Amino acid sequence: MMNKENLPRHIAIIMDGNGRWAKEKGLPRAFGHREGAKRVREIVKYASDLGIEVVTLFAFSAENWSRPKKEIDIIMRLLDHFLERQVKELDENNARLKIIGRDDVLPSYLRKKIKSAEKKTSGNTGTLMVLALNYGARQEIVDAVKSFASSVLAGKTTIEELDTEAFNRYLYTAGLPDPDLLIRTSGEMRISNFLLWQLSYAELYFPKKYWPDFKQKDLEEAIQEYQKRERRFGKLKC
Asked: 94 falls in which pLDDT band (50, 70, 90)?
């Protein structure tokens, strides 16, 4: 049984396997992405009901631009439709939305939708849903270094003031707790340039199911597995 007194504060998810799910069913990859969007709504809603503080979803990586243009266009349209529908639901459930990643190359219609969605839900106090769009962790760290260097040149801080806690403030995820649990669906066991800094002490869970098949009961199993583990953060067991 899941112990609701020992829930992860922050769950990060790499939603992998949409294309393979569709291919195995003899369907175009677009069907996998559409079904995957449905799972987002279900999983975020359940996480919110449990009281999970933050759910971060790897929606589109900086490397995904190398995919066929047709597939990218479909993903962008799905994101647009998702934001249109999901924002209302998030707002009704007192949840918030935050986007991380570089937005300069996203379609203008999507950038406008993102800003509107973030603003609309900014006053809510429930679960925070973070979507990583055009995101790459190495680029995030480089951007953080540049931001820190700019602060030093502007006289706002000094090199001596930089430590790990101070560096967190320059990341896209500034102000958020680090993920306690990372879930990557489809059985692939790598983190693929996702939250490299933030995942330092996260528990990793790699279910074999593709993302479109990952349901509420699967999230329960992931949390139950998390609760079996002993988190020592580098310390010796007492």
From this structure: very high
